[in-house]
Amino acid sequence: MSTFLSRFGAHVTLVQSADRLLDREAPRVGALVATQLTEGGVDVRTGRHAVSARRGGEDTVVTLDDGTQVRVDVIVVGAGRRPRTGGLGAETAGVILDERGAVGVDASCRAAEGVWAIGDVTGIMPFTHVGMYQARVAAATLLGQSRTANYEGIPRVVFGDPEIAAVGLTADAARAAGHQVLTAELDLAESIARPWTYEKDPRGTLGAGLATPGDGGAGDGEVAFDPGGVDHVQGGILRSDRDQGRGVVGVGGFGYRQRHQHRRQPLTRFHPRQFPLPRG
Length: 280
What we know:
Elements: H1 2-7, E1 13-16, H2 27-39, E2 43-46, E3 50-56, E4 59-64, E5 69-72, E6 110-112, E7 115-116, H3 128-142, E8 155-158, E9 164-167, H4 171-176, E10 179-187, H5 188-191, E11 205-213, E12 223-225, H6 234-242, E13 248-254, E14 268-270
Parallel strand pairs: 1-2
Antiparallel strand pairs: 3-4, 4-5, 6-7, 8-9, 9-13, 10-11, 11-13, 12-14
């Protein structure tokens, strides 16, 4: 939204209560986003809260917790989402709701005896593709098949410009889980030619990590991506599905614009001997 309004000529101030943007992702991702927004004319203020707002003539004056003031025409508040399960009588059916109202489900998306739940109402990664995946799991279970959901290889995306997409654990989360982690970052505009077919000044970054449990060596691995921000994570999804003990920690694509997304291209695989992962 900030990019959209800024490119239409509005002066945008983005106030983020967390210390960095996209704080659920790796810090590097938030730093890349902040740089792009700032270069695009957006005033980015992280670690700040709005404490008051008042009318000041024809404008609205917002005071932040550091004492600074921002004079604006319109305030857009991102308040997040929560499941709308109030008043449905879920408890009478034995369904358990958490503090945010999300329906608790098991690995087969069963919420209670004879009750299944799928999609945003479960509070598990509120994406359309997750809801569709849960629907297939629930339908298979209803038909008597044994099927469970696994969310480790589910991609996540921010539809901005550039697009931001990721799959798997962040490197910090993998280390916290006791894994050894190897990471690498690839500047797409400097490494491959395709970004130059879409922009005069292309930008794009691909980050990848490999993890192994305990003290074992991670060995070789592959990173696969398709030009276009969202498609960058496809190879990571394939690898996390294929490798159980040694999977991709996270593949993040901070991509360039793809103006012809209907033209799907084959996956391009890069072996680590071409782009060596630093060890240690």
